[in-house]
Design a protein that fits this description.
Layout lengths: L11 H14 L1 H18 L1 H14 L4 H26 L7 E5 L1 H9 L4 E5 L8 H5 L8 E5 L5 H10 L7 E4 L6 H10 L3 E5 L9 E6 L2 E6 H10 L3 E8 L4 E8 L8 H18 L16
Parallel strand pairs: 1-9, 2-5, 2-8, 3-4, 3-5
Antiparallel strand pairs: 6-7, 8-9
Helix pairs in contact: 1-2, 1-4, 2-4, 3-4, 9-10
């Protein structure tokens, strides 16, 4: 069994290579380097291959041939998303085009002066959302609640190469639950709280819900907290389209009762499933998500 441990893959060397390629050969030319990176993972990352293959074959019902092709394309797509994130942070925002789908939902949320909860997933490229918000006069502090133990040296390096410093604040989940006070304070200032709802890790509280026809464990925190706060909830995703184009989706959680965490989870999994089926290569969960592989 390979469960998520709260860390994301990546090394500072990999990001340095991305930055060098972006600065010297351009974004699109940098994508060519990914053929070799994706080939390496496809040939040698046996565990990741097994889990992502299971997703394509057993959850999306792909043929064996289509599954193998999709595994390679998944690694390749993930690399492009990382390059885009690095390039945009490094000041190349004007190289990209974008479109908004449901941005009025975010504006309406802020107009209520209650703050708001955004729930996303490890799909697409949500981390670049703030770079697009600025272009539509969407001026609001975003607080990302995370358990991710990403290596500090990588974050520090990306901050050094970034032309515009990120305005996203991080609220780290703590065992003493003190992060709850940080969340309440942010909401009192009409700020946005963002969770990713699709990664449960061993030892934490969880809820169970169906996704792609099979029950899975989801982190309880985002749904327990969001359902009790009384703040409006919006599902937000930033998805990569062809070339250097991105599509931001914002959908209001419908018909969810207060203090009904299970109902909110059900609403979320239905919404997430629709995005996964639309963008199957952009859901980047390379582990035993459904806990059903021996």
């Amino acid at each position: 069994m390979n469960k998520w441990k709260g860390k994301s893959k990546g090394t500072i060397l990999g990001y340095k290579i991305f930055v060098w390629c972006i600065r010297n050969i351009g974004v699109k030319s940098s994508y060519a380097v990914l053929y070799f990176v994706a080939a390496y993972y496809f040939l040698f990352e046996k565990k990741s291959n097994r889990y992502i293959s299971h997703y394509f074959r057993n959850r999306l019902n792909y043929s064996s041939r289509k599954t193998r092709i999709s595994v390679f394309r998944s690694y390749f797509t993930f690399g492009k998303v990382l390059i885009d994130k690095t390039a945009i942070s490094a000041g190349l925002r004007d190289k990209y085009t974008y479109e908004f789908d449901g941005i009025e939902n975010l504006r309406n949320l802020l107009a209520e002066k209650k703050g708001g909860v955004l729930i996303s997933a490890h799909i697409g490229n949500f981390e670049i959302a703030e770079h697009f918000f600025a272009d539509i006069d969407f001026d609001c502090q975003i607080n990302l609640v995370t358990t991710d133990q990403e290596v500090t040296v990588i974050k520090e390096y990306l901050e050094r190469v970034s032309v515009k410093k990120s305005n996203i604040k991080f609220i780290y989940v703590k065992e003493d639950m003190s992060h709850i006070f940080d969340i309440h304070e942010a909401l009192s200032k009409n700020e946005l709280i963002c969770f990713t709802g699709d990664r449960y890790f061993e030892g934490s509280k969880y809820l169970e819900g169906d996704l792609l026809g099979k029950s899975a464990k989801f982190p309880a925190g985002p749904f327990l907290i969001a359902s009790r706060l009384g703040a409006p909830v919006v599902y937000v995703y930033v998805m990569k389209e062809k070339n250097l184009h991105y599509h931001l989706y914002a959908r209001v959680a419908q018909d969810v009762k207060k203090r009904d965490a299970q109902g909110l989870l059900h609403s979320y999994t239905q919404n997430l499933e629709s995005m996964i089926r639309k963008y199957p290569l952009q859901w980047f969960n390379y582990f035993d998500f459904w806990d059903d592989i021996d």
